[in-house]
Amino acid sequence: MNLSTISLELSVIVLALGIILIDLWTPVSLKPKLGYLAAFGVLVILAYTFCPSIDGGDYVAFGGMYLHDGLALFFKRFFLVTAIFVLLMAVEFAERIRSGIAEFYALMLFALTGMMFAASAHDFIMVFVSLELITVSFYILVSFQRYRLGSLEAGVKYLIIGAVSTGFLVFGIALIFGSANTTNFTNLQALMSTDAAFNNVTGLGVLLVLVGLGFKIAAFPVQIWAPDVYQGAPTPTTAFLAIGSKAAGFVVLVRVIFEVVHPLAAHWNALLMTIAAITILYGNLCAIRQGNLKRLLGYSSIANAGYLLLGIAALSQAGSSAILYYLLGYLFTVAAAFIVIIVVTRETEDVSELAGLNQRSPLLAAGLALPMVSLAGIPPLAGFFGKFLLLKSIIEQGAINSSYYWLAGIAIVGVVISLYYYFGVIRAIYWSKNPADLSPISISIPMKACLAICIAAMLYLGIYPNDALKNADRATAQLSAPSSAHASR
Amino acid sequence: MSPLTYIFGLPLVTALLIVLIPRSYKVVIRGMALLGSFIAMCGAICVFVNFNHAPVVDGFRYVQKIPWVESLGISYHVGVDGINIGLILMGAIVSFAAVCISHHIRTREKEFYILLLIMSGGILGAFASLDMFFLYFLHELALVPTFIMIGVWGRGENKNYATFQITLYLSLGALLLLIGLIALYLQMPVDVRTFDIVEMTRYFKANSIATNAQHLIFPLLLFGFGILVSLWPFHTWAPLGYASAPPATAMIHAGVLKKFGLYGLIRIALPMMHSEAQNWMTLLSWLCLGNILYCGLVAMRQRDLNMLIGNSSVAHMGFAFLGIASLNVIGVTGTILIMVAHGLLAALTFALSGYVANQINSTKISDMGGLLKAMPYIGAVMIMAMLAGCGLPGFASFPGEALVLFGSWSQFQLITGLAIWGALVIAGVYMLRAIRNIWHGDRDWMEVSDAKSLWRKMPYALLLAGLIIFGCFPRLLTDNIKQSLPAVFPSQTMVAQIQK
Fold first, then answer.
1. Number of other residues whose CB lies within 10 A of the CB of residue A354
2. A residues 375-404 near B, CB within 8 Å?
3. pLDDT tens track for A270-283
4. Which pLDDT value is given to residue A486?
């Protein structure tokens, strides 16, 4: 056991414990500022990922349970960047938390640890533990505004549906272990590729695991929690759920589908395609009538999970690299949108509260309008190129199985529907009639910086996607390669 | 750097600079927009004049190529040949004119000029680009401001409906097209995959695409591009959209942006899938008849000036499609001439109708009448534009329509006959009737003023001059087209035509 192999995760845990400890000696008025400390700590850890000892090469640790490879590193950096944004949002949101703000930061860091472990999970037990670390932290984070009924309701809903899907996950893992006698990805992969006969029990086990993962990414049929929880949870938590938790689900999904059960998954493409199609249509159709901005983003997040599932359904390297690229664009897009929501809206978080935003603050107006444009998949922003890559990956499969063309058709129907509600938000920002409040909004410097970074990143990823795509390709290049090639450390 | 990069980059950079200017500096904002589009237009004129002196690379001039996304084979590749040089010139002129006539915009000028410049820069870039990805990307970039401009600065009670209709319709068309383009790209083997149109054309001419793939891809491209050009029966977004749009937006969209679909068919669909194209041309020729006759008849019944112009613009697209459907050099040459001519013409008529609507605060034809006395200059230009719309010789539409009819006669005699009838009789009826009802009559107007200063008259004169110059000297365009069109068709057809 070599603890240096998990130094990244350990340093996040130390940071979280440090925040809790420092909290004991911090005067109440300064407690919200601990978030800056936490964000700075995460930034240092992010810088540390570029050290040769982390960036240097792949290795397996803890008896094959923990795998450090390109994909894991990509997602760890992704989660660290997300955490910086979310922690800074939380500082902005601190006055609405009322009590226990330091614990709020610490819990976010614990969830971050879970996400980072999930990126490296190479064993179903490890998957379970890391996902539970994320989910349990989120149970608390979602209901953190104890004085608000909505927040408590969201917490209960998240807890119940989360517990049910965890049940599926555990049951699935038990079935896999019972039939295959191992939960390790490398061993399972070897079993799958040698045992050509379709093993029903293992297959059922993996399917149940997929249900558990579907909960994390908010895919049909376990998407039902998303709108309520997105609406009720404190906004920084919602942002973390939308970006981090979803990406954690996807990294495990990518590993399970492409690495572990790749031979099996070929039998399931009809299932995967159906789920992707229904998720896209459900998210987009339900979003049409929403007036609450966070609820709207909840449905839009379901729709986006559907688009991301296109990359899974494609069952190709192009598909998985498209998922990585799309998530990267999604990170900056959604972060910008939630920053604006935190700064602008107070009580109702209604779309109508955005009226006259352009007169009140052009930066905030652009900071919400550009994410909507990007989510709608319009150039020159990141969302366009992401959708382009995902569509390309499924049309590529169309030559083999023509039902992929229908999937592409459903995806574009979804995009056209989504234009309607995204443009509704833009309309509220720029040309709504008789805005109630035209007082200028002051923005704190960290929020301004975050917004500027998000907007710049959306444009950069959209206009010059070359570097990001190269990274995504590199991270997914060895997915289907046998993982026994990794050096053990 | 190729001058083409400056021609389309300048409006985009100007838009970016305007973002940084405070919104109270209205004169500076308008001045910058004028300057940016003026320099772009001068650049386009220079490129057009010097076209034959520039070195040729693979049949294209002023070529520039920079790898962009290596793993997908996307490169920044611009260049002009005889097919797109006229379109770029026309687009740059229309863009400048559109900025000139926008002096009546009094709300949110900053956003208006930013969006207008993004539109014109985007579409000029789409015409200049020889990479399929950038072609689509820049067109989409130009398309989206259209929707916002109709929503914010549009007019009429159906504004919101028109905004959503045009947004959803055109986005659907563009996305169908995207699927078609991606599918086309995926027809190349993995190791040579590229979005470069020149290389793709060369590859697909040498190794033709599998027939069943062509069955799938060609209709996607035909109807994807077709929706964008308001091909009947997918044209319903156009008249209402144009009637609700502010004049400058209608000018650039109807004049320039809409030609993208036709350009895409000529540049991508015909050369790469020539054999499949032949199967679809009979259907296409009947659909163009829908444009010419149906939309012409609809135009006859309109009581709103903008709706009339919108419908007549849709009807004109029928001729452009007919030239493509005839699938021979003469017909396609005619289509390219029509594209340039109709771009100038549509821009001119929408600019003039916008001027009239601003003066009398109405677009209903019944509210007009006798306006020629009050607005002799605007009236005279509008009458010329309407006559040009009927295909009068001397204006650029005439050689285009004549060539299209020559070209299509060898393929579809019946349809050509009906189209001629539609062009001469129907267009003549509604245009002449509109001239009578709007400009003639004995109504007296008090508060109405003509375009007084030379500066105000200039944009209309510029567009009219373009129409007359290309009408009297179509060789300015056809000589260049002649060099480039053979590349569109496979060599056998050329031989067959020469033998005829």
1. 27
2. 378-380, 384, 388, 391-392, 395-396, 398-399
3. 889 999 999 999 99
4. 47
Q: What's the pLDDT at A487? A: 47
Q: Does B13 touch chain A (CB under 8 A)?
A: no
Residues 6+ apart with CB under 8 A from B425: none
pLDDT for B493 equals 52
Contact across the interface for B179 and A395, Cβ inside 8 Å: yes
Q: What is the mean pLDDT of residues B224-229?
A: 90
The ipTM value here is 0.88
Please report the pLDDT score of residue B499 as a whole number. 43
What residues of A are in contact with residue B182 (Cβ under 8 Å)? Answer: 388, 391-392, 395
Of A115, A109, A114, A71, the C-alpha closest to A90 is A109
Any bridge partners for residue A184, and if so which?
A123
Instruction: Say if B182 is an interface residue toward chain A (CB within 8 Å).
Output: yes
What are the tokens at A96? 């609405």
Q: Do A412 and B216 touch (CB under 8 A)?
A: no
pLDDT of residue A243: 93
pLDDT of residue A482: 44
Nearest beta carbon to residue B141 from set A379, A391, A399:
A379
**Alpha helical stretches, state H, A288-316:** 293-314
Q: Do B68 and A408 touch (CB under 8 A)?
A: no
Phi and psi torsions of A121, nearest 5° = -60, 130
pLDDT tens digits, one per residue of B413-423: 888 888 888 87
A461 touches chain B (CB under 8 A): no
Smallest Cα distance from A312 to chain B, Å: 19
Q: What is the end-to-end Cα distance of chain A in Å, rounded?
A: 9
Task: Indicate the domain borders of chain A.
Answer: 269-478
Interface contact flag, A379 B137, Cβ < 8 Å: yes
Burial of B437 (0-12, 13-18, 19+ CB in 10 A): middle
CB contact under 8 A, B69 and A426: no
In this predicted model, what pLDDT tens digit does every residue of A22-31 receive, in sequence order? 999 989 888 8
Segments making up each domain of chain B, as ranges: 3-499
Q: Are strands A66-68 and A59-61 parallel, antiparallel or unpaired?
A: antiparallel
CA A334/CA A243 separation, integer angstroms: 7
Q: What pLDDT, in 10s, does the model give residues B142-182? A: 988 888 888 888 887 788 888 888 888 888 899 999 999 99
Task: Give the per-residue pLDDT at B491.
Answer: 55
**CB within 8 Å of B248: residues ≥ 6 apart:** B98, B99, B101, B102, B105, B116, B149, B351, B354
Q: State the average pLDDT over residues B287-316.
A: 88
Distance from CA of B92 to the nearest CA of A (A): 22
| DSSP result, B100-160 | HGGGG--SSHHHHHHHHHHHHHHHHHHHHB-BHHHHHHHHHHHHHHHHHHHHHH--STTHH
Indicate the SS3 state at residue A479.
coil
**17-46 of B, contacting A, C-beta below 8 A:** none
CB-CB neighbours of A401 under 10 Å: 13
pLDDT (tens digit, 9 = 90+) per residue, B310-346? 898 888 888 899 988 888 888 889 999 999 999 999 9
| Placement of tokens 């699927």 in the chain | B179
Confidence (pLDDT) at A451:
93
> Hey, what are B146's tokens?
């259209």
Using a CB-CB cut-off of 8 Å, the residues of chain A touching B179 are 391, 395, 405, 408-409, 412
pLDDT at residue A63 greater than cutoff 80: yes
Backbone φ, ψ for residue B273 (5° rounding): -130, 60
A125 Cβ under 8 Å from any chain B Cβ = no
Rounded to 5 degrees, what are φ and ψ at B78? Answer: -120, 155
Residue B445 CB neighbour total at 10 angstroms: 16
